[in-house]
Specification:
The protein is built from 16 helices and 9 strands. It has 383 residues and is an alpha+beta fold.
Length: 383
């Protein structure tokens, strides 16, 4: 078999696009910065001709930028325009720990679906959880999507990789009795506001910590969720935007529990605050909350499980999924349905029972004979 013909200098930059056209990459220096531009053609030969005819420029491989270079550029410039600072830090940690050791010094364009799939498999063998591998895949796919839009790569190869399977995980839920015990134990505790807002309003811990007294309208028992406390790393936090645009919402609390909030000491601007009026540190809050739940006799719980319990209890009582989704501030009802799918069967049964009581007063309708019972009567008559 004859060997493959050697490519001419610069022809390594030529690739075929998904729409069938051919493309070549030209790199040149402008004011000290490298700039890429593209030429296109119906055939490979046409692109080669255009590259050779380009004046005073040099055709280079499309992958001249390394993975490490692009990751740092993406984290510093592009990603901060799209997500919160805490998310940038999280994505950076994921990429530097799991992607760069393997791909960092290689060309960005040399990252392919096969070696990505091998990386995910290797991470699983090393003991990384399926959820963590799925997060790595999600971050890589988002990064390569931006690289595609910026012209660094010709396609998002992560879209060709099989999504790591993540086993469905159901969070714990406080029972109604446990919830009442916890609310009772929280009375006059520094975290009483956190417990009420989580259990009775479905707020995230970060949203509860960021809530100000001016965000509560006591005459209508309404809480306006506008901010969230986010981690900046190294034990630092700041009050910023909510998790998503849909998380900005109003939540109506039960009147009795809103009155309990109104009775709390208003020593600072935040509802959940220390005795000196300063905002609560979430790390201290987690430790004290765990001690509070143990003292209440319900075991050890995490503050986020208050929100999960609120949603589960409401759905089990037949509250419509859309209403619960809006209270939680989910971006779509589908997310709520997916997270709380294990609760919905009970809610459906409750709905069927309610309809039977509403629509079928059996004493006013003719009784329908039981076919099985009727057969038994006939058999007895024959005897």
């Amino acid at each position: 078999m004859a060997g493959k013909a050697r490519r001419a200098p610069g022809e390594g930059s030529i690739h075929r696009r998904s729409d069938g056209r051919w493309a070549g990459v030209i790199s040149e220096q402008r004011e000290g910065e490298r700039v890429r531009r593209y030429v296109y053609g119906k055939t490979r030969a046409e692109v080669v001709t255009k590259l050779k005819a380009a004046p005073a420029v040099k055709a280079v491989a499309a992958g001249a930028i390394t993975v490490k270079e692009y990751v740092e550029e993406w984290l510093a410039i592009s990603l901060p325009l799209q997500v919160r600072a805490s998310t940038v830090d999280n994505y950076g940690n994921v990429l530097r720990r799991h992607l760069l050791p393997t791909f960092g010094e290689g060309s960005l364009c040399e990252v392919g679906p096969t070696n990505l799939q091998k990386l995910y498999a290797e991470k699983r063998r090393e003991g990384l959880s399926p959820r963590s591998v799925a997060l790595l895949h999600s971050v890589v796919r988002r990064m390569l999507g931006d690289a595609l839009r910026e012209g660094h790569v010709s396609e998002n190869v992560a879209r060709k990789v099989r999504q790591p399977r993540v086993p469905r995980r159901h969070g714990r839920t406080l029972t109604p009795e446990q919830a009442r015990l916890l609310l009772t134990a929280a009375h006059e505790h520094p975290l009483e506001g956190l417990v009420i807002l989580g259990l009775c309003g479905g707020l995230r811990p970060g949203e509860a910590y960021a809530l100000r007294w001016t965000d509560i309208y006591f005459d209508t028992s309404t809480v306006f969720v506008r901010h969230s406390l986010t981690a900046l790393g190294k034990g630092r936090y700041e009050v910023g935007e909510t998790k998503t645009a849909g998380s900005v919402r109003s939540v109506v609390l039960p009147e009795s529990w809103c009155r309990r909030l109104a009775a709390l000491p208003q020593s600072g601007e935040h509802v959940v605050s220390t005795s000196t009026g300063t905002r609560y540190d979430p790390n201290n809050g987690r430790r004290q909350f765990k001690a509070l739940t143990k003292a209440a006799g319900v075991g050890e719980w995490h503050p986020h499980e208050l929100r999960h319990s609120a949603a589960s209890l409401l759905l089990s009582e037949g509250v419509p999924l859309k209403v619960v989704s809006e209270m939680l501030g989910h971006s779509s009802v589908a997310i709520t349905g997916d997270v709380y799918a294990h609760v919905l069967p009970a809610a459906r049964s409750a709905a069927a029972t309610a309809l039977e009581g509403l629509l079928a007063p059996m004493d006013a309708l003719p009784q329908v004979p039981d076919p099985q019972g009727e057969g038994e009567d006939l058999a007895e008559a024959d005897e």
